[in-house]
Amino acid sequence: MRKLLAVLLTAGTLFSVSAQSNETAVIENVNNGGVASLRGITELDITRKADELKRVIKDRSPIDRDYVYQPPLIPHQTRHYEVSLNANKCLSCHSWKYAGEMGATKISVTHYQSREGEVLSDVSPRRYFCLQCHVTQADASPLIDNDFKRVDSLR
Amino acid sequence: MKFILNFWRKLTAPSKAAVGTVLAMGFLGGIIFWGAFNMGMEATNTEEFCSACHAPIVKELKETIHYSNRSGVRAICSDCHVPHNWTDKIVRKVQASNEIVAFLMGKISTQEKFEARRKHLAVREWQRMKENDSQECRNCHNFEYMDFSEQGPRSRKQHSTALASGEKTCVDCHKGIAHQLPDMSDVPGW
After folding, report:
1. What's the CA gap between A53 and B27, in Å, rounded?
2. Nearest to B79 by CA among B51, B46, B110
3. How far off is chain A from B103, nearest CA to CA, in Å?
4. Between A42 and which of A48, B81, B149, B186 could a Cys-Cys bridge form, CB atoms 3.0 to 4.6 Å apart?
5. Alpha-carbon distance A96 to A91, whole Å?
6. Residue scoring higher pLDDT (B154 or A37)
7. Closest of A32, A37, A71, A44 to residue A144, by C-alpha
8. How would DSSP label each residue in A112-130?
């Protein structure tokens, strides 16, 4: 009986020691070294609570651009606007054909140009997926404090 | 047997009771028939029923505002596709018998076949809604009660002009509101 207990105890201690050394190894792997990134200073193995979704405002005037050549933000909701091989809901208002009638902003001439600057008869395939460059606007503070300033002409 | 004979005799005998019974039976039978008929009409209005043949479409609907939104009020297939008005409803149901034929012929039995036929079906549906001035939409969205001041400027601009004047109806502008669209290259406005 005593022998059995002794064996069990040593086995137990050995096991816990090995478990502990595993743990330290894990901690070293996930330690962020106190560096804050965009995810904050959470350890790598912890899934941080997601930020709250930004509320997209239904419709309002556009936020001004911050730099030349910035794709303008979308000043309205785009929920369930289909942009696919079959249909492009954005172009049903913003294409040159319909912009006037719908009172929408016309897409710029660059959207009709090929990569070589050749003017095409319709929207260039590389500009077709609007949401690659344009996003809906929301009230969001900068993720990282910074001292970016607009160029003089946009100030 | 004897009971039935007796009953028959009672019915044929020119007595007050007979008239009453016949009337009552006619009435009851009517109710039962009507009930069964309407139950059939109801049962064929559920989403499970439609999804048996239109599974891909049910999946698409789930992402749209008519399936999930902040207020939790939703539209099911029949709200938009089956007229409320009784005669129109019967007409649509009889037309739907054609769908059963099309189903048996396997016209939309695979995703590919459905995609290929989708344009045709969508055009038919737009046509139907144009003809009834988008009655199904209006069953829920009544123009009379639209508060333009609560709507976005884009909505207001279109609703107070082309919609108010009757020049256009809901589906003219709101295509693909509940489903993905077919190839729109030759559709006016796209």
Report:
1. 60
2. B46
3. 25
4. A48
5. 8
6. B154
7. A37
8. GB-TTSPBPSS--GGG--G
Distance CA B83, CA B138 (A): 11
Residue B114 forms part of a structural domain:
no
Give the global pTM: 0.84
Which chain A residues are closer than 8 Å to B65 by Cβ?
79-80
pLDDT in tens, A66-118: 898 899 999 999 989 999 999 999 999 999 999 999 999 999 999 999 999 99
Confidence of residue A7 (pLDDT cuts 50, 70, 90): low
In whole angstroms, how large is the CA radius of gyration of chain A?
28
Q: What are phi and psi of A146, to 5 degrees?
A: -155, 165
The larger pLDDT score, comparing residue B91 to residue B129, is at B129
Tell whether B89 is covered by a domain.
Answer: yes
Q: Which pair of tokens denotes residue A43?
A: 């350890």
pLDDT in tens, B12-69: 665 555 666 656 666 666 666 555 656 666 667 778 888 888 988 988 998 899 999 9
Q: Which of A61, A74, A86 to mutate to test the interface with B (most CBs of B within 10 A)?
A: A86
Any domain includes B124: no
Query: Which residues of chain A lie closer than 8 angstroms to B63, CB-CB?
Result: 80
Which helix or strand (DSSP H or E) is residue A33 part of? none
Domain residues for B83? 20-107
Q: A100 CA to chain B: closest CA distance, Å?
A: 13
CB pairs under 8 A between A and B: 38
Does residue A66 belong to the interface with chain B, where contact is any CB pair within 8 Å?
no
| C-alpha span between B43 and B96 (Å, rounded) | 14
Query: Considering the domain boundaries, does residue B46 fall inside one?
Result: yes
List domains and CATH numbers for chain A: 1-50 (no CATH), 51-140 (1.10.1130.10)
Q: Which of B115, B39, B19, B173 is nearest to A84 (CA)?
A: B115
